[in-house]
Amino acid sequence: MTDTWQTIARLAGRLEDHSTLPREQRILLQLLKIQVEPRIASIADFRAASRRPRVSALTRWR
After folding, report:
1. Residue 16: left if φ>0, alpha if ψ -120 to 50, beta else—which one?
2. What is the largest CA-CA distance in the chain?
3. Most exposed of 6, 7, 44, 56 (fewest Cβ within 10 Å)?
4. Which residues in the chain belong to E strands, given as ranges?
5. Residue 47 to residue 55: CA distance in whole angstroms
6. pLDDT digit string (tens) for 7-22?
7. 32-46 per-residue burial string, b: 16 or more CB within 10 A, e: under 16
8. 54: left (phi over 0), alpha (psi -120 to 50) or beta
9. Judging by beta carbons within 10 Å of its beta carbon (0-12, 13-18, 19+), is residue 26 exposed, middle or buried?
């Protein structure tokens, strides 16, 4: 488990080092991303459990 967190910390550091955005903007974007992820996961779970999951955009309606 320690190796995993070390890898995550190393990757986060590399992203920070190469970002051209101001620190405040990076933090705001990270918070927005964290907020969106559970919503996307819950929608996917709902669709998977639904009797009529959303039809693919490739499906043609007649």
Report:
1. alpha
2. 55
3. 56
4. none
5. 10
6. 988 988 888 899 899 9
7. eeeeeeeeeeeeeee
8. beta
9. middle
